């Protein structure tokens, strides 16, 4: 990003009060539930239901809650976090790689059926992934892959046609044909050109897609719910829903699960925040400027 | 985009090739006429692994007792989800023809949803036919098919009663209302005396509560539905009486209308905003852990009655264990479902340790169960109250084969109208139309009451 020259004061765009209020309202709308989550994580079951929801109770119970969350059910929560991490990272890496290869191919190669296949991808975007969960289950059940990590990773890698679409659009504009030609003139093969030259220009798109897939797989509930039976394989979403179910059921000790669900939810969003902070620095455009004369 | 491909192809959508899945799916078991004791003994000595999907906390205890009694059978318990997620998971696996459990937790209201798709095994030939006498009459009716089939074994129930704040009642000189009429008067008196307090809360999106209220009110909207014929009559006089009653109270503003089991509701219950909670037999223990700050102030009583002197209750909640007919081990699965729900040690642990309200006569008469005094209820024998209520639940209440849809349609029609104090009769009609439309769309022949 380059700094724009400072313009004279009077030309500065007028601030819109309405817009500012609107944005503040939107920010509050999105941040308030998060704030509630932070506040609720510091409370005991009793305080949760007897004190005002959006402010802290007298005593801070956060660390006890975190401790309990990680020790309940023999440390199941830590395992769920690990599983979620495995599924999300593996799906994001694999899925982004596939999307980058495919999108680049669609954008830069001329072959029969390019357009038709791309239309197929566009069509696939219109089908919500939840609707595909059951057919996917049937396929994986035939292949004997249900109740294994593959049942989550493989569909998650391939179930985001948006990634491919986005890559194609991005590669189309970010990778100049001249760059590929100059690579060919220098005698590099197609894969070498992709991995060493043009692929790097796609970094901002790759970071975007990776983040997108990371979040989507991390938050996916329905697919792991129907695919997995073994609690040792559950991701955090299914695990927490399971605790939530126990908290809501009529069992005697059920109330004890409520703070665990709340605290667990809070902990489970931290990896995503870290991923955002880490990947956003790759969101810089303009890498290509100056590489060729146009 | 390269010019070469401009306008070459029309839109060629990705053609999905249909897969033939049926080939290696498991075929359902044809239930035999009778299974001899020798066959059962033989099967129970064959090393087998059963899959059991349930959400009941601590069920491992009953499973361990079963494995102790039948050391050759191993039971694998899967607890993935509750309610909608649980059923979605089961339906998917049943559709795939593999991966489904042998035995699963099924709520009473969902039993018809699995019999209509022909997925439940009739347990009669496996000895379940002889269990009828052990269970309360209305509970057994809930798991019985039209031709006497036994579709599942009852595990717990939720006969409905009223939990009330004795301290609030005393402070305002309110008697425990025996009739709905007295209840309405008390609601007016109390709210007038203290505008912060409501006699009770009507939960607008809680279809299960309303079903229980219909049940108590003598409405049986889906009675006589069988197979492809769906009878629906949520506009009956009995149903109107219930809906009008609540709509009137809501319109007067003397009952609150907060969504139940929400943050707001829990807080209000702790704060003393509601003087009663119209709930089920699982309510007392639940309230104890979520409204701990009000300990000692609550008492339990039967629901108010529509006709003075009556003793009628409805049911809200509870579940069963059913066996799916794709199981490879029908005998073992059936014996398991029966054992954990009838073995004295198993059922006693459920009632006294897991706090599931029992469906068996033996436990409901067991002084050790009924005599339990709960501190939270000022030492009252709450189990005894609900055991007596259980005996008054009407056996006539049939669930539709798609109760989840009926529930989903309830909130936007009847629930929200009552909460707003609107025209209850019109809302019931609206609900009926939606149910009928959905049923026809699903291929049922609909016979509407009027």
UniProtKB/TrEMBL annotation, chain A:
It comes from the Bacteria. Keywords: Cell membrane, Membrane, Sugar transport, Transmembrane, Transmembrane helix, Transport. InterPro entries: MetI-like, MetI-like_sf. PROSITE patterns: ABC_TM1. It holds the Pfam family BPD_transp_1. GO terms for biological process: transmembrane transport. Signal peptide: none annotated. The chain crosses the membrane at residues 17-39, 85-106, 118-138, 201-218, 257-279. Residues 81-279 form the ABC transmembrane type-1 domain. Belongs to the binding-protein-dependent transport system permease family. PANTHER family: ABC TRANSPORTER PERMEASE PROTEIN MG189-RELATED (PTHR43744:SF12), ABC TRANSPORTER PERMEASE PROTEIN MG189-RELATED-RELATED (PTHR43744). This is Multiple sugar transport system permease protein. It comes from Glycomyces artemisiae.
TrEMBL record, chain B:
Keywords: Signal, Sugar transport, Transport. Residues 1-22 form the signal peptide. It comes from the Bacteria. The keyword Signal applies. This is Extracellular solute-binding protein. It comes from Glycomyces artemisiae.
């Amino acid at each position: 990003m380059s700094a724009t020259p400072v313009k004279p004061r009077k030309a500065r765009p007028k601030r819109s009060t309405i817009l500012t209020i609107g944005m503040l309202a939107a920010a509050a709308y999105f941040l308030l539930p998060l704030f509630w989550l932070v506040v609720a994580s510091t409370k005991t079951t009793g305080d949760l239901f007897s004190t005002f929801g959006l402010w802290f109770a007298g005593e801070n119970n956060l660390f006890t809650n975190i401790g309990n969350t990680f020790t309940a059910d023999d440390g199941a929560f830590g395992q769920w976090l690990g599983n979620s991490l495995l599924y999300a990272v593996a799906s994001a890496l694999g899925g982004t790689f596939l999307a980058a290869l495919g999108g680049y191919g669609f954008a830069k190669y001329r072959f029969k059926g390019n357009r038709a296949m791309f239309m197929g991808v566009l069509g696939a975007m219109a089908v919500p992934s939840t609707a595909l969960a059951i057919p996917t289950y049937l396929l994986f059940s035939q292949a004997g892959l249900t109740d294994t990590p593959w049942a989550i990773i493989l569909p998650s890698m391939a179930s985001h046609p948006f990634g491919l679409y986005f890559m194609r659009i991005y590669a189309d504009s970010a990778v100049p044909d001249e760059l590929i030609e100059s690579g060919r003139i220098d005698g590099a093969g197609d894969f070498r050109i992709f991995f060493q030259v043009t692929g790097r220009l796609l970094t901002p798109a790759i970071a975007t897609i990776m983040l997108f897939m990371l979040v989507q797989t991390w938050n996916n509930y329905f697919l792991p719910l129907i695919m997995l039976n073994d609690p040792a394989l559950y991701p955090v979403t299914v695990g927490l829903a399971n605790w939530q179910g126990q908290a809501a059921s009529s069992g005697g000790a059920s109330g004890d699960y409520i703070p665990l669900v709340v605290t667990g939810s809070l902990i489970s969003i931290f990896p995503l925040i870290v991923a955002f902070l880490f990947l956003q620095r790759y969101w810089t455009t303009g890498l290509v400027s100056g590489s060729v004369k146009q | 985009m390269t010019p070469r491909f401009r306008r070459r192809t029309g839109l060629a959508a990705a053609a999905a090739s249909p897969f033939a899945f049926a080939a290696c799916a498991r075929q359902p078991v044809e239930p035999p006429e009778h299974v001899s004791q020798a066959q059962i003994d033989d099967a129970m000595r064959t090393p087998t692994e059963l899959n059991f999907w349930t959400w009941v906390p601590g069920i491992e205890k009953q499973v361990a007792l079963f494995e102790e009694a039948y050391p050759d059978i191993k039971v694998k318990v899967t607890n993935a989800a509750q309610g909608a997620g649980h059923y979605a998971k089961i339906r998917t696996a049943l559709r795939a023809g593999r991966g489904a459990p042998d035995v699963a937790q099924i709520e009473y209201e969902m039993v018809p949803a699995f019999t209509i798709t022909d997925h439940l095994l009739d347990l009669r030939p496996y000895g379940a036919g002889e269990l009828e006498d052990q269970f309360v009459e209305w509970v057994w009716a809930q798991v019985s098919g039209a031709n006497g089939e036994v579709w599942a074994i009852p595990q717990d129930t939720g006969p409905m009663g009223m939990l009330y704040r004795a301290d609030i009642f005393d402070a305002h000189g309110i008697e425990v209302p025996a009739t709905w009429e007295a209840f309405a008067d008390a609601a007016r008196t109390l709210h007038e005396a203290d505008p912060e307090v409501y006699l009770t809360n009507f939960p607008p999106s809680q279809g299960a509560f309303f079903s229980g209220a219909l049940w108590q009110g003598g409405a049986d909207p889906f009675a006589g539905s069988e197979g492809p014929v769906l009878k629906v009559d949520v506009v009956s006089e009995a149903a109107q009486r219930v809906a009008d009653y609540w709509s009137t109270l809501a319109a007067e503003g003397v009952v609150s209308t907060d969504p139940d089991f929400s943050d707001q509701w829990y807080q209000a219950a702790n704060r003393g905003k509601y003087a009663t909670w119209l709930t089920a037999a699982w309510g007392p223990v639940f309230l104890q852990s979520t409204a701990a700050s009000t300990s000692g102030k609550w008492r339990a009583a039967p629901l108010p009655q529509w006709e003075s002197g009556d003793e009628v209750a409805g049911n809200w909640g509870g579940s069963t264990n059913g066996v799916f007919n794709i199981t490879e081990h029908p005998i073992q699965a059936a014996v398991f479902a029966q054992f954990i729900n009838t073995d004295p040690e198993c059922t006693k642990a459920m009632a006294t340790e897991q706090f599931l309200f029992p469906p068996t006569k033996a436990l409901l008469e067991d002084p050790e169960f009924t005599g339990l005094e709960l501190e939270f209820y000022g030492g009252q024998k709450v189990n005894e109250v609900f055991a007596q209520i259980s005996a008054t639940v009407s056996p006539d209440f049939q669930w539709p084969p798609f109760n989840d849809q009926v529930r989903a349609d309830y909130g936007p029609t009847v629930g929200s109208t009552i909460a707003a104090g609107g025209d209850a009769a019109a809302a019931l009609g609206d609900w009926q139309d939606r149910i009928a439309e959905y049923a026809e769309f699903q291929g049922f022949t609909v016979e509407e009451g009027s």
